[in-house]
UniProtKB/TrEMBL annotation:
CDD domains: LbH_LpxD. GO terms for molecular function: acyltransferase activity. GO terms for cellular component: membrane. PROSITE patterns: HEXAPEP_TRANSFERASES. It comes from Urochloa decumbens. This is UDP-3-O-acylglucosamine N-acyltransferase 2, mitochondrial. Gene3D superfamilies: Hexapeptide repeat proteins. Pfam families: Hexapep. GO terms for biological process: lipid A biosynthetic process.
Length: 285
C-alpha cells in the first residue's frame, strides 16, 4: 500500500495539470480560423489562458493574433492580440508586437524592438531596440497651472523597403498620423516626433531630431545631428549638412547648412568671415 500511494498521488497531480492547461471551449475553432496559429495550437496541452507558444522559433503569441505559418517568432518575443504578421516575417528575441500591429511580407524585426499603434510595410528592417508607435511628447498647462497630457490617439505608418536603425524612436500621431515613406533609410538614435510626415527615399543620419508636425518631402538627406523645428516644412531634394538646425520652412531644393540653416554657399561665407575676423582680433591683442 505504501508503494502504491505515491504513484496514485502522482497520477492525480498529472491529471489536474492537464485539465488546467486545456483550452476553453471554442478555442480550437478560433485557432483554426487564424491560419498560421493553428499549427502552434495542434497540441491542446500547450495552451495558457491567453497566449500559446509558436511552432516556428519558440516565441509566444496571443490566440487572437493572425500569424502566417512561415513567420518566425524567436524565443522571448511576444505577439499580442489582433496583431497580423505576413509571410516570412522574422521577429527577434525580446521584441514585443503590440495589439493590432500589422507587419508586411519579409520584414525583419530585431532584438528588443517595441511596436505599438503602428503598421510596418513589406521588406522592411527594424534594428535592435527601436520603438515605434509610442505616445508623442504633447502637453499643455491648464488654467490651474497643472501640466496636462494632450491625447495621442493615432498611428505611425511605415512604408515598404524602409530601414530603421537601432534605438530609433518614432512617435504615433495626435492630429495626423506619423508617416515614413517607401525606401526611406533612418540611422541609429533618431527621434521622429508625433505627426511627422517623411517622404520617400529620404536618408536620415544618426542623432537627428525631428520635432512634431514637421513635413519632409521626397529625397531629403539629413546629416548627423540635424535638428528640425516643429511644424517646419522642407521641400523635396534638400540636403542638410551635419549639425544644421532648421528653424523655418525650406521652399527651394538644394544644399543647406548652419544654425539657422541657410543655403550652403552663404553658410560657407559666414564660416570663412568668422574665421577671418577671429584671426584679426587675435593679431590686435
Amino acid at each position: 500500500m505504501a508503494a502504491i500511494l505515491p504513484r496514485t498521488v502522482r497520477r492525480a497531480a498529472e491529471a489536474a495539470l492537464s485539465l488546467r492547461s486545456m483550452p476553453p471551449r471554442g478555442a480550437g475553432h478560433l485557432a483554426r480560423s487564424l491560419g498560421g496559429v493553428s499549427a502552434a495550437c495542434s497540441n491542446a496541452g500547450t495552451f495558457s489562458v491567453e497566449f500559446v507558444p509558436w511552432h516556428n522559433g519558440g516565441g509566444i503569441l496571443h490566440r487572437a493574433a493572425s500569424v502566417d505559418p512561415t513567420a518566425v517568432v524567436e524565443a522571448g518575443a511576444v505577439v499580442h492580440s489582433g496583431a497580423v504578421l505576413g509571410k516570412e516575417v522574422v521577429v527577434g528575441s525580446g521584441a514585443v508586437i503590440g495589439p493590432s500591429v500589422s507587419i508586411g511580407h519579409s520584414t525583419r524585426i530585431g532584438y528588443n524592438v517595441a511596436l505599438s499603434n503602428c503598421s510596418v510595410g513589406e521588406f522592411c528592417t527594424i534594428h535592435n531596440g527601436a520603438c515605434i508607435g509610442q505616445d508623442g511628447f504633447g502637453f499643455f498647462v491648464d488654467e490651474d497651472g497643472q501640466v496636462k497630457k494632450k491625447p495621442q490617439m493615432l498611428y505611425a505608418r511605415i512604408g515598404d523597403h524602409v530601414e530603421i536603425g537601432a534605438n530609433t524612436c518614432i512617435d504615433r500621431g495626435s492630429w495626423r498620423e506619423t508617416m515614413i515613406g517607401d525606401h526611406t533609410k533612418i540611422d541609429n538614435l533618431v527621434q521622429v516626433g508625433h505627426n511627422v510626415v517623411i517622404g520617400k527615399c529620404c536618408m536620415i543620419c544618426g542623432q537627428v531630431g525631428i520635432a512634431g508636425s514637421a513635413t519632409l518631402g521626397d529625397y531629403v538627406t539629413l546629416g548627423g545631428r540635424v535638428a528640425i523645428r516643429d511644424h517646419v516644412s522642407i521641400v523635396s531634394k534638400v540636403r542638410l549638412a551635419a549639425n544644421s538646425s532648421v528653424t523655418k520652412d525650406i521652399q527651394k531644393p538644394g544644399d543647406y547648412g548652419g544654425f539657422p540653416a541657410v543655403p550652403i554657399n552663404e553658410w560657407r561665407r559666414q564660416t570663412a568671415n568668422l574665421r577671418l575676423f577671429s584671426k584679426k582680433d587675435g593679431v590686435k591683442t
